[in-house]
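ok trying this again, last paste got cut off
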Amino acid sequence: IIKYTQNKILLPEYDVFEERRHYLPGNENSLKVIDFKGLKIGFTICEDAWVDEEITGPRGYETDAVSVLCNKGADLIINIAASPYSRNKISLRQRLFQKLSQKHNIVFIYVNQAGANDDLIFDGSSAVYKNGRLLLQAESFKEDLLFYDTEKTYNFTASSGQNRMHEVRSALVLGIRDYAGKTGFTRAAVGVSGGIDSAVVLTLAAEALGPENILALAMPSEYSSPESLSDAQELCRNLSVKCTELPIHSVFTGIKSSLAGIFSGLSEDITEENIQARIRGLFLMAVSNKFRALLLTTGNKSEIGVGYCTLYGDTCGALAVIADLYKTEVYELAALLNRGSAVIPQNIICRAPSAELRTGQKDQDTLPPYDLLDRIIKKYYEEYKSPQQIIAETGCSENLVIDIIKKLDQAEYKRYQLAPGLRISEKAFGSGRKFPVVKKLSYRSINV
């Protein structure tokens, strides 16, 4: 028997949320308080409780559903949520709900979804608050069951919780596991280059699905260093993952021979570099098809941001595991994954990053050092800083800042065609980004 229904009052319309396109909101007059065994219970749905702009930031809502329910006599409010994870989100929610429960002198029960769907990861972290105190806390990044007794006294001591990179690790493992499971895959495939990105993705995949369910492919070329191949093989041994070597040299030579006529008189350039990446993409997709293995891509946020990737090459795959991690964060995560047991060889961590698509190639031939690149991208994309502000705050030259911003804007067409990337930041490339591919941009000289 359905005794009561309630519509969501506040429909978010920012970033990944587009609820007003699909639903009509309820109104505050529909909010009711239910009497149950002497308790007066009110219900809110997810965003309905995000009403304190000192904590949440500007939302522009006119209705405060929590205050309405409290004015109607509620002494316990349940918030049913599907609130996606991002860094610092767990602690932000805790501050918000502690403040609401203290402000209104109520019990506030937060019930959040646990699991992942597409690029969104729901961390669970359900909790009970009373008069500003945290009484009970459910597990994060897994399903959990708590019982709250309204007549019992609780003396809960909150744990210090996971640090930032522990949270990220748990989120990405959950994201891989649920994406695979909910799409019917039990195995995954990863191309391993001997670089840090593929090493981290392979390690996370083995943790999520089990090493026996991971297919690792090493695809050396004439430009691959012997160390890269041996480090990739050592990584796989450390993880107990089977590694298959598929050299691409003969295929690359054949393709160049086939194109020799039309390319006659032209020097080799990035075209030949991209051909190598696309051969590897072809091999990976073939293995994915033949063995029904979910292909995981290995690009990071820094490289995806500036377009330092090859369409239909290293971008091939169904899920971009570290697409929302800056390169510097990939190294942080690698350090965490190596705690206790150094599964990722130190050579991989220490070697200068390289795509190894030409002789002597290094990432820094094309890009500034990653710590600097990441700062520029974050300030422009996540903090909405102007070029002038970025120059002033980083001390970088105008030419460098404008060059990176141009690369960010011009790479939009690549990002439109990428696999969904697991989201762990407040501003990720993907479903929440609504920028056109075709746009007229002007990069004028800046006076600072």
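PB: full thing came through this time. The domain at 167-364 is CATH 3.40.50.620 (Rossmann fold).
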